[in-house]
Predict the structure.
Amino acid sequence: MDLGLAGRVAIVAAASKGLGRAVAEELAREGAQVAICARTPATLAETAAHLQKTTGREVFHQPLDVADSAAVAAFVASVEARFGRIDICVTNSGGPPSNSFRNTQPEEWRVAIDQLLMSTVNFAREVLPRMQKHKWGRLITITSSAVKQPVDGLLLSNSIRAAVTGLARTLANEYASDGITVNNVCPGFTRTARLDKLAAGISARTGAKPEEVFAGWEREIPAGRLGTPEEFGAVVAFLASERAGYVNGTSIAVDGGLVRSLL
């Protein structure tokens, strides 16, 4: 299937590792010009070099904190200056730590809101007007299966990613007439460093071994296994494509059947 991504310009946030890196690689393999950002310069540069080597596509990279609105604005302007346009934006950020409501401090709420919600607002404010000029665009948020079925212990993620979903659904209505789609992609348990960190945290609190934590997650999933970043990246690439032009305002779980809801 030709996804029609050749020559498109895509921004992928928090793309130095994990799901963001897998998405950037998939888009580059499909022929898109890719711009990536993340907080750690060395890891980001390594990822950019790897993507250029494996896909043959030019990869623009710039270190920044996605919660910094001025830095996001400057990055988006640099991408447009480099490639001439912006067609696709995939918002993403690291996840907040697991904790209970009782033990979560007010400052942790503020940090998580900036990290998850305001980072998405920052990118949306910059890319949507640019997409409007060309009457075509794809804004895709990476959220979590927690927006459909809360995950025990992930208070901040459960709460604030739901706000991201509401934002995206509203933007989908506002910008559809401009040829822009806005969708959420909701990963379930996917084998990344983030999941290793969550397993270690649960292990420290409960005394269970990390491998027992992973086994427990796998028992919850009808597919009987964790997902891979590459499987997730393929779904995002489809939503970014010409073929997905009539998919708008959705929240698609990529979770092996973990979420038990009907929608």
The first helix runs from residue 18 to 29. The two ends are 27 Å apart (CA to CA). The chain has eight helices and seven strands. The helical segments are 18-29, 41-55, 69-83, 106-134, 155-175, 193-206, 210-220, 229-239.
